[in-house]
Design a protein that fits this description.
Blueprint: H1 2-24, H2 30-35, E1 41-46, E2 49-54, H3 57-66, H4 68-79, E3 84-89, H5 97-100, H6 106-116, H7 138-149, E4 158-161, H8 168-182, E5 188-192, H9 193-205, H10 210-218, E6 222-226, H11 235-250, E7 254-259, H12 271-277, E8 281-284, H13 290-303, H14 310-319, H15 324-341, H16 347-353, H17 369-380, H18 384-388, H19 394-410, H20 415-421, H21 427-443, H22 445-461
Parallel strand pairs: 2-3, 4-7, 4-8, 5-6, 6-7
Antiparallel strand pairs: 1-2
Helix pairs in contact: 1-4, 1-6, 1-21, 7-8, 13-14, 13-15, 14-16, 17-19, 17-22, 19-21, 20-21, 21-22
Bound molecules: adenosine-5'-diphosphate (ADP) and magnesium ion.
Residues 124, 126, 130-132, 137, 164-170, 296, 324-325, 328, 412 line the site of adenosine-5'-diphosphate.
Length: 462
């Protein structure tokens, strides 16, 4: 009971901040908005004072010297009474203390602080702690953990393969996160294989220094290549990869590879590379069984601070069998709908919210960025050129932001790739768009509705 009151207060502060942010947009330069303003945390709203926490003294100084008036104007408009902005420097744990001191345990406080920081969802924090272990992934999990604990020892390379949305990227990031905690100065490099290829090709075509390229990979204790199946068929790049692989291996650096298929099924991979891949440990991740899917939903629901009865959880878990990203998507939709309409989550509600959800087998497929862009352009009735173009007109900006958000949510593409496909925009623009739409989905019913309809349309098309 007590905790509910606290959470309600938190939700009020969060909402006031979301509204304020929405009003500021356009009044400050985009780079300022995405770097400084969106890094502020709403701490408390008491009488006329809205206290915001800046991540450091630098951010606090810049904002107080330049943007304090814009902020208080926007907050006044959003809240509907005169508001002064009070800036402090906050660490994430201090953030919720003002309103959450009364919260019962430490755990609730941490969940509450997570709810206040929607921007933390980007990029998502992938750790071993929030990875649910079941029969389908336990070997991959244990092998990954062992690499993080003692890199360069056994199982080198570690090759993890499995279908889309089964947690490969999650495990790779978890290795990085954990190894960095264990050994503070350790050097680790995570790379999407497509980025490795692009950078290598750029090095050749733009005649950049090859040694600089090599150094980025060689000087690391662990190198994680995500989606290594992309190496297929790129001859010169395979040669370079082979050399780097050997240098790493000789110096007892650990190489971890993820792939959507086993080494034997990656087409046009040279035999020498395939045999290197098979020279370590190859482990697959299979689709999770019902029990694991339920455990995942349970953990995510708890992190979101929502209670969902078992029959409703089972219903959600039965909708998607072979893609955890889709499973999370369904849960997010249920939670968002409950928050927006103030409904209680039970079986009937979940059935209703998910009634348009396409049944499998389509779930396991990932849409391409092109498909998302085309469908979003159709939905808003605008031309594709405008969607990826430079115009800052409101409807176009909105459609563009929704499209970027959907690319981020529904594909494996990196922020850099998404930015590239939206008229060579910077990845910080993509982050900004995703944060904005995330806020709006939580606070505006029409936008929640638009994104839901678009997600369904995209899912149906693949
Ligand atoms: P892949 O790289 O295999 O396509 P990801 O690692 O991107 O898949 O996982 C997709 C989503 O599912 C991520 O949000 C991830 O956190 C989540 N996920 C996957 N497996 C698990 C798991 N075992 N426990 C918790 N979350 C998981
Ligand atoms: Mg992945």
């Amino acid at each position: 009971m007590k905790q509910n009151v606290v959470l309600e207060e938190l939700a009020g502060v969060e909402r006031a901040w979301a509204e304020t942010l929405a009003r500021i947009d356009g009044q400050v330069p985009e780079h300022m908005f995405s770097s400084m303003i969106s890094a502020l945390k709403p701490l408390s709203l008491e009488e006329g004072n809205f206290t915001l926490g800046a991540p450091n003294a630098f951010a606090k100084d810049i904002i107080s010297s330049k943007y304090i008036d814009v902020l208080s104007g926007a907050a006044t408009g959003a809240i509907g009474r005169p508001i002064s902005i009070v800036l402090t420097i906050s660490s994430p744990s201090e953030m919720v203390e003002s309103v959450a001191e009364r919260a019962t345990g430490r755990e609730e406080m941490q969940s509450a602080s997570r709810r206040l920081m929607p921007e933390e969802a980007l990029p998502k924090k992938y750790t071993f702690d929030n990875f649910v272990v079941g029969d389908s992934n336990k070997f991959a999990y244990h092998a990954a953990l062992m690499v993080a604990e003692i890199p360069g020892d056994k199982y080198n390379p570690l090759f993890i393969y499995g279908g889309t949305g089964l947690g490969k990227t999650h495990l790779l990031y978890a290795i990085k996160d954990y190894a960095e905690k264990m050994t503070p100065n350790i050097k680790i490099r995570y790379v999407q294989t497509s980025t490795f290829i692009d950078e290598f090709i750029a090095t050749i075509t733009l005649k950049r220094d090859k040694a600089t390229f090599d150094q980025k990979y060689i000087n690391n204790k662990i190198v994680l290549f995500d989606d290594i199946q992309a190496l297929s068929g790129t001859d010169a790049t395979q040669g370079k990869f082979f050399d780097i692989f050997n240098l790493l291996h000789q110096s007892s650096s650990h190489i971890v590879l993820s792939s959507d298929r086993p080494p034997s099924e990656i087409p046009q991979l040279t035999d020498r590379i395939r045999s290197r891949f098979e020279g370590g440990l190859t482990i697959d991740i299979t689709p999770p069984d019902l029990e694991t899917r339920l455990a995942i939903l349970y953990v995510k629901a708890r992190a979101e601070n929502v209670q969902i009865p078992d029959d409703a959880l089972i219903y959600i878990a039965s909708k998607v069998k072979d893609n955890i990203r889709s499973l999370e998507g369904l849960l997010n939709r249920v939670v968002a709908s409950a928050r927006l309409y103030g409904t209680k989550i039970d079986l009937e509600m979940v059935q209703d919210v998910l009634k348009d959800q396409v049944a499998e087998p389509h779930q396991s497929r990932t849409p391409s960025i092109d498909v998302i862009q085309t469908l979003v352009a159709n939905y808003y009735n605008i031309a594709m050129d405008d969607l990826v173009g430079k115009s800052r007109s409101r409807p176009l900006v909105h459609a563009r932001q929704v499209a970027m958000y959907l690319c981020r949510e529904m594909t494996d593409a990196t922020l850099i790739t998404i930015g590239g496909q939206f008229g060579s925009r910077d990845h910080t623009t993509v982050i900004h768009s995703c944060k904005k739409i995330e806020f709006n989905i939580k606070t505006k019913r029409d936008i929640f509705q638009e994104v839901t309809e678009l997600t369904n349309t995209i899912n149906k098309s693949i």
